[in-house]
Specification:
By secondary structure, the protein is an all-alpha fold. Helix content is 72%, strand content 0%. Helix 4 packs parallel to helix 7 and helix 7 packs across helix 8.
Amino acid sequence: MYFTTTRRKTRKDRIHIQFFAQALKKDLSQGTVYKYSVQRFCKAANICRGTFYRNFKNLNDLFSQVLQFEINSCFNNPQSSTLHKKAHNLLIEIETNATYYRNVHSLASSQIRTQVDQALFREMQKLLFNSNLSNKHIQSISSLILIRILDWIAHDYQDNVITVYTDVECLFLHHIKKSC
């Protein structure tokens, strides 16, 4: 499994989760989905149920691992050097694949929010390790950013990327001023 174990992620694990992420994104980008099943995912990924259950506990585990992988990939993109660029690229990724993220948002249980929040926190923590921000402040920032992104998705992308990015930037700057 990719994120549910404590062992080091191997290249093989990253290739597997990348394959599953691509299959899920392709399937859930086709249009609005109200119900989703392991059987449908297996058909979309061209795998058997046994393969699914060797890698995931259930659909929520799939969603959680894929979203964590996507956050990790976005934040570890060498073309984006600063936190600001990485945050902006993440927002563009979400807007570009709006149907996919809307479907995942509506299909996944609220339990995965904590796991996604922790993935975002870990990535921000890596980037801000030399800052004056405590882990508590970084956790607050990542949680507020995630809440803003989820609200944006839930309200069907009514705001544009620049508006959401500006909100995220304001949250970030507010916490930096508080910590100084």
